[in-house]
Phosphonate ABC transporter ATP-binding protein
Amino acid sequence: MIQFSGVSVVYPGGTHALSDIDLEIADGQFVVVVGLSGAGKSTLVRTINGLVPLTSGSLEVGGRRVDGASRRQLRALRADIGMIFQSFNLVKRTSVLNNVLMGRLHSTPTWRSLLGLYKRSDKELAFQALERVEVVEKAYVRASNLSGGQQQRVSIARALAQEPQVMLADEPVASLDPPTANVVMRDLQRINRELGITTIVNLHFLDLAKRYGDRIIGMREGRVVFDGTGEEADEKVFEDIYGRSLTADDVIGEEPVEVDLDKVLDAES
Ligand SMILES: Nc1ncnc2c1ncn2[C@@H]1O[C@H](COP(=O)(O)OP(=O)(O)OP(=O)(O)O)[C@@H](O)[C@H]1O
């Protein structure tokens, strides 16, 4: 379980990014966080792995306290939390496999990783992760030669190779076209269902949030202003969260068609 109790974050310079957040996220939940730019979504997600320190309040992840954790404790916590970014954050000039193996770095001595001497069991884990997101045939391709959708799937595989308990995704589909965005969201949903990894995703697009989130958390000016199911989150709720009428920019506008994965990924590359 992830538990926020009275969490506030004030950045140097005085911006109140989070104000007195109380939240409980049960193990295995798929949570989507929505809100206008600047509402505090990224800050909320980044407190969970200690990337952003709390100004006040307390935060526990799987019974471990994040605030006040030592560097060593934070390293151990981060080993159990996978993270996916909008810009994929792959090392472009090396192979897909090497990128995924980086998910094993936390349990690999530096000298071994520098020499590329990963254990056989780590390589097996990396291949399993690539299989799970259906890009295993790209294992020896340079990451720079993949399409955006494929790169995001590799970054999901890298996170999976960590064998995480929690998966954080900060705007994971913001750089992808609508069909590919659906493919990636569906991957995240499938992984959440199959492996029971607690998943927290920041999303800009409200239709995607409704389609994939078991639970939607709406943020406005650093506070939680909605917490409910996708069904409960209707247009009126979203207008409350956004404080304005919805526009075409707020939806990705693509119905969840039965996508032929290979075609989409090929067309993109
Ligand atoms: N490192 C930082 N230093 C100072 N202020 C910051 C920092 N990071 C974020 N902020 C500010 O904190 C507030 C919340 O930002 P945050 O990135 O969490 O919002 P967001 O909802 O994720 O928005 P976006 O989708 O644009 O990233 C904003 O006003 C932002 O400008």
About this structure: Residues 206 and 251 are 5 Å apart (CA to CA). The pocket of adenosine-5'-triphosphate is lined by residues 11, 13, 15, 17, 35, 37-43 (CB under 6 Å). The first helix runs from residue 41 to 48. The domain at 81-163 is CATH 3.40.50.300 (Rossmann fold).
